[in-house]
């Protein structure tokens, strides 16, 4: 599998982005971990690349202002998968193919099952409580 993150440079596409000098515990989409105290972050509107047309959603995401870490892009980020999440699969045309709620400990299997379907191009991992985009997964 290949993990797709959000670069801090994406924040510059949103003129309404918000600088936060400290926002501890928020999920960072650049390095796929939670923020620590006194780490400057951006909060901005982001549209994940895998939904198109009516499925091209825009929602809030956090990234570092300057990301100090490089996450592994070939394995799931354990720190952001300690709670139930929504998985949404999309086809190559950017249309929703399927969706499900997945509990901790079942992510690898559920994502693998979704990506085993040849009609699925990508899977988005999202917050269960707010629906916010965390990261996307495609085949390696």
Primary descriptors:
10 strands; 140 residues; 3-stranded antiparallel β-sheet; 7% helix; globular; 1 helix; 5-stranded antiparallel β-sheet; mainly beta
Topology:
Layout: E1 2-4, E2 18-20, E3 27-28, E4 33-34, E5 41-46, E6 59-64, E7 85-90, E8 96-102, H1 107-116, E9 122-127, E10 133-138
Antiparallel strand pairs: 1-10, 2-5, 3-4, 5-6, 7-8, 7-9, 9-10
Describe the model.
The strands form three sheets. The protein has a five-stranded antiparallel beta sheet with strand order 1-10-9-7-8, with helices on one face. It is 7% helix and 34% strand. With 140 residues, it is mainly beta. It is built from one helix and ten strands.
Q: Determine the structural class based on helices, strands and strand pairing.
A: mainly beta
Low-confidence stretches: none
Roughly what fraction of the amino acids lie in strands? 25-35%
**How many helices does DSSP assign?**
1
Give the overall average pLDDT. Answer: 96
Element pattern in H and E: EEEEEEEEHEE
Strand order of the largest sheet: 1-10-9-7-8
How far the N terminus sits from the C terminus, by CA atoms, comes to: 4 Å
Approximate helicity band: under 10%
Number of distinct beta strands: 10
How would a textbook summarize the main sheet? Answer: 5 strands, antiparallel
Rg calc: 15 Å
- Gross morphology is globular
């Amino acid at each position: 599998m290949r993990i797709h993150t959000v670069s801090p440079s994406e924040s510059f596409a949103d003129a309404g982005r918000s600088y936060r000098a400290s926002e501890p515990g928020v999920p960072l989409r650049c390095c796929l971990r939670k923020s620590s105290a006194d780490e400057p972050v951006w909060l901005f509107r982001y549209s994940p690349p895998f939904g198109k047309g009516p499925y091209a959603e825009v929602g809030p995401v956090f990234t570092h202002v300057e990301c100090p870490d490089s996450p592994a892009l070939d394995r799931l980020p354990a720190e952001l998968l300690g709670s139930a999440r929504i998985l949404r699969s999309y086809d190559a045309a950017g249309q929703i193919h399927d969706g499900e709620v997945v509990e901790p400990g079942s992510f690898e299997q559920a994502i693998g099952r979704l990506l085993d379907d040849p009609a699925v191009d990508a899977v988005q991992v999202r917050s269960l409580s707010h629906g916010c985009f965390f990261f996307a997964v495609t085949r390696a």
